[in-house]
Amino acid sequence: MAAVVAPNLPRIRMMRREDLPQVSLIEREAYEFPWSPGIFRDCMKAGHACWVLAWPGEVVGYGILSAAAGEAHVLNLCVDPQHQGMGHGRRMLRRLLDLARWHGASRVFLEVRPSNEAAHKLYLDHDFVEIGRRPRYYPAEKGREDAIVMMHKLAPDQPDQPDQPG
Fold it and tell me: pLDDT class for 12, splitting at 50, 70, 90?
């Protein structure tokens, strides 16, 4: 019998308050218009699913999912620019989709900048489809940038009302 050695991957775990300085640093390095540390704190206080990819002492990525009323919304998904291209974003997205299923969501929504080609491709690779655009949604260097609104179906449509016994 041969032993299979697991690759040295960061562990996915719930975000902790002490992760916020590293999460905020990654956010500032990755985005021209980053979330503030307060937004991350508010997401944790609101009970959103806030997760990180971490090695001991180092956070390399994070994802935040809001789930309610049978739907979920990926609010933020980011990998430290120094650790991109290694499959970490795919792992985190899969975790967020699993969490959406656990919360009973049938659909997952997100917005992505058209200029963020790598993220757009990641979502397409995971069966997200474009369902619309939000004009001038994101701040940009020269004004505003549209958002591509995408949706991923997790399960077949469920009836609005359960069948009543006849």
Answer: very high
pTM for the whole thing?
0.87
Confidence at 101, pLDDT banded by 50, 70, 90: very high
Cβ atoms 106, 71 nearer than 8 A: yes
Two structure tokens written together for 19? 């992760």
Parallel, antiparallel or unpaired: strands 58-68 and 71-79? antiparallel
60: closest CA among 96, 15, 101? 15
DSSP structure class, residue 70: T
CA-nearest of 59, 58, 120 to 50 is 59
Residues 6+ apart with CB under 8 A from 98: none
Residues 6+ apart with CB under 8 A from 138: 33, 111, 113, 144, 145, 146, 147
Torsion of CA 21, 147, 42, 74, to 10 degrees: -90
